[in-house]
Amino acid sequence: MTARILVVDDIPANVKLLEARLIAEYFEVLTADNGRDALDICDRTQVDVVLLDIMMPEMDGFEVCERLKANPRTAHIPVVMVTALDQPSDRVRGLKAGADDFLTKPVNDLQLISRVKSLVRLKTLSDELRIRADTAQSIGIDDPLRLSEGRLEEAAQVLLVDSRGSSQERIIKTLKPIAVVTAMSDPQASVFDAAENPYDLVIVNGNLDDYDPLRLCSQLRSLERTRFIPILLITEHGDEQMIVRALDLGVNDYIVRPLDPNELVARTLTQIRRKRFNDRLRHSVTQTIELAVTDGLTGLHNRRYLDSHLKMLFTRAQARGKSLSVCITDIDRFKQVNDTYGHDAGDEVLKFAMRVRSTVRGADLACRYGGEEFVVVMPDTAADVAAVIAERLRGIIESKPFVLKGAGVSLDITASMGIATAGRGFDTPEQLLKQADLALYQAKRDGRNRVVAAAA
Asked: What pTM was estimated for this model as a whole?
């Protein structure tokens, strides 16, 4: 895994040392000897991780970090503060400024490389989500740069896995102002609990009795339901091997005993906010995908979805030797509705899709084909059964008038339908649709408001 790392330090020897270590691991390294140059580089160049010294003239690392996190163009870049300051108060101040982690000079090689790799993986995931969310913004669905609003400040749900009651009590008391903490002593039970509840963070204490805490972290990362829940590991001072292995497994952060309450709160808040931010990005991506394949007026799938899924259903039916039927529905004299009452009234009539939904079965695929035409694809459905379903839909459309709220009138609407069934001389999805379309035109010519099946 390669990435572009920016090293910021006003002492050339420190820069050279970090640069050499990172280049040896095949990272691309950029350097800056002051805060202003660092901000400029991040603003105009892709940077994956910033290693930032705190003690610098003119603009210290805290201010640089605050400015990076305040700029929407650079807020997503992970920042690691590399400093000789090792007091908890300094770490808390850095975390409040937006720093993702700390490395204390002299920098340990294992922690340096493992922390950088961990943050690069995190940024890669976030970048993919942000790119897709930007697509959502471009079509007016959401603004990913405003995703910090809303639920991000609500009290969090935290799962604490800790074998000792006294330790549980201290952590619960510390986090009470910002989170509702559920404490569990049984690691295996905690995995099931995390999978069933909407936790924002799992804190794993390394003091687990007769159970490897890294095994628990690995289980949480391997399950689909818990894969994206951040994990904060509590470790002993000097246990570097556990820290390195934890980060490789996907643990998001760690904190060393004895616990400083302010640092624990700050690190917890950082992970919760990041998790909620990424949740919103994923929601935006999901929403984008749904809208890309959904007709906005009727709520049915659109033609793009039909084109791709009909091919799949057709191929599956052929492979299994099953029937596949298609019904094309067209609203009769729809142009007269638009011409007489306006397009708003026409849109109200098109919402008869609710009647389509009430008719089709769970396995059927209902789509808006275009204009006033709709398609229902019926897997594992022979021609005679398809005719019964189409006739039921025709009857439901005819049975109840459509009330035009804007015009204050009720309209009797009918629909014509053409059906075709695969395996009756139709060798491709396109031929199947074409034959159903020809059957529909036959229904129109025969007087409308009827179902016609394509000839074999």
From this structure: 0.58
